[in-house]
Amino acid sequence: MDSTLGLRALTDRTTAAVREVLAGRRRGWRAIAPLAGPAIVASVAYVDPGNFATNIQAGARYGYALLWVVLAANLIAMLFQALSARLGIVTNRNLAELSRAHFPRRVVLGMWGASEIAAMATDLAEFLGGAIGLSLLAHLPILAGMIVTGAIVFLLLGLERGGFRPLELAITGLVAAIGLSYLAELAIDPPDWGAAALGMIVPRLPGQGAVTLAVGIVGATVMPHAIFLHSGLTQARAPARNDAERADLVRFSHREVIAALTFAGLVNAAMVMMAASAFHRGHPEVAEIGTAYHTLGPLLGSAAAGLFLISLMASGISSSVVGTMAGQLIMQGFLGWKIPVELRRLITMIPAFAVVAAGFDPTWCLVLSQVVLSLVLPIPMIALLILSRREAVMGAFRLDTRTSALAWGATGLVLVLNAVLLAQSL
């Protein structure tokens, strides 16, 4: 059976199961399984290697003080991922496709160009993260680690030939590996739970450096490619036949977004707590992934250091797969061009190999990629809010005034913080 027929058969089975859920004939876990997946895949963007670097610095330098920033960033991310998923469910089209249909051609081409740059910058950070983890774990040169990481990513992308479900399950397994690794890290070196709880609910910025890191945490959390991708993951997953079914699907999607991004937020908080517990008192200078690994071993033992690398590799590989999916959706949505996912993977891998082969420092490249993302982030955020407010696009699901005001306020906050991050980075 070729991959097209396999995908159609899987889609038909899933669609039939969704119909049973909407008709009320499936309950409990049997009702969750057919619909779950999009938010889990999108949540990978919130536990990528860029988050590792920022969270490690925050915990090492300032202990538990910046945990409240992790919480605030996660809440903003929940809002925009929920809006993106809602757009796909209601319209059966993704954000890039709707932008092409409703915005002037020059604007669309500009959006596509900027989004392609962001996709490559995202993939650079994610691909490098996985390669750094593999090279440290297996004592390989960084280029060799990149080659092995690329091969693994190609194999995972090949799962899509059997439909979206096998790939989703693989990504879910990698996300679970990240979470379990950090759960084990906290068991090996338990944090000060009282101080962690205080840091989560009491906003404070102990010094100018803390302001910079707080901006970095927020600026690296709401990711352009995740906003584009989530609408694509929901657009044809379970086509609704009427507004009542759309409302049911939107409600489920909101619950899944809350659950998936709560998990991602807890992983980010665990990263900060691990770094605070292990490094803050004796090694506050730890700022890089490699330094964190080499410092963890003598402090907490080889098991803690190994778990750290396993979680980093799972993060880099899963987020690289998701980044490729997002890049393919962006190109197809804005231009109507469809290319094989393997070619798309190759295109986004080239910049990563080029910068490492040229001798650039991988950590510096990670930082630069975050600056690029900060520049591009306004594009999907603003486009999503404009389209969500249009009755011609959303019909009865047009964004209400209260939610719109909240979303625009969050957009303004993120844009200001990203401007500060960009200025300080430059």
Helix content: over 70%
CATH architecture of the largest domain: Up-down Bundle
For the terminal residues, how far apart are their CA atoms? Answer: 53 Å
The CATH topology annotation of the largest domain reads as Amino acid/polyamine transporter I
Order of helices and strands: HHHHHHHHHHHHHHHHHHHH
Mean pLDDT: 80
How many domains is the backbone divided into?
Answer: 2
Oligomeric state of shown chains: single chain
Q: Tell me the Rg in angstroms.
A: 21 Å
Portion in strands: under 5%
The first-level CATH class of the largest domain is given as Mainly Alpha
Category from helices, strands and their pairing: mainly alpha
**Approximate shape:** globular
Low-confidence stretches: 1-10
CATH level-4 homologous superfamily of the largest domain? Amino acid/polyamine transporter I
Biggest sheet features: none
Number of strands: 0
The number of helical elements comes to 20
Description:
The protein has 426 residues and is mainly alpha-helical. It has helices at 3-22, 29-32, 38-43, 49-62, 67-91, 95-102, 105-138, 142-158, 164-188, 193-201, 208-219, 224-235, 243-279, 289-300, 302-335, 341-357, 362-376, 378-388, 391-394, 401-425. Helix 5 crosses helix 18 (378-388) and helix 7 (105-138) packs antiparallel against helix 17. The radius of gyration is 21 Å and the shape is globular. The termini are far apart.
